[in-house]
Please model this.
Amino acid sequence: MLKTLFSRIGAASQVSIPAEAWLAAVAELPFLERLNADELARLRTLTERFLAQKEMAGAGELELTTAIQVRIAVQACLPVLNLGLEWYRGWSSIVVYPGEFLVPRRLHDEAGVVHEYVEPISGEAWDGGPVLLSWDDAARAGTRRGAAYSVVIHEFAHKLDMLDSEANGCPPFDPRLHAGLDRTRWQSVLEDAFERLNAELDIVESRVPDTVDPESDEADLYYAHLPLDPYAAQDPGEFFAVSSEAFFVDPARLQLAFPEWYAQLAGFFRQDPLGAVT
Model:
């Protein structure tokens, strides 16, 4: 493992990101164009504090660079721009792999049989532990296969969701920040949007010929009609994480498909990518 270039023992509360590295990161993330000068300045300060507080390490012989760390950190900080870094409390490490990495899984089926296998993934957030990321995937933030994509935002949304329980799609609310949000209303809107996505996915999958590989470009033509990446249909926790990607990367499409759910997310993140900051 390689310690972050910004890691310091007894460091100050923030570090200084070189101007060239900051401008390059912003230019490579087109969904930041909506931010005004004041918001970008606050995001930079938040990112510098994040880099001072969290330890980023390279795995699989990945050599971390300033550019890699800033690119990851700015995506991680965007969701908490108006919430604060305390929403990432309770853990300190980010492990970055060159590409997809293997994670061991253990599954009990309905018959009680235990299945053990390894799964290639691009990111994972551990409850109380580190965030694991694939740099190859983190570098391709924007759109992929026709859907909004940011593995960094996705995994850090899980971290927000885990603050009060497992990743179930319902992050905690702070009465000082979220006075307009109601837990019952949130769950109702989430459930409705989740069920609608699953219904649309069933229709899409029924139209994909058996001869078409679901991972192929040909299959993408069918799934492109969905408002979110199909992975959002896994469970409410994944729906929240995938929706968070879309909220920041492709908000117009999310708002068009699920306007009430979009409004809930805007209230939680205290941002409105399609309008004014709340």
Observations:
- Residues 125 and 131 are 4 Å apart (CA to CA).
- The chain has two domains: 19-140, 183-269.
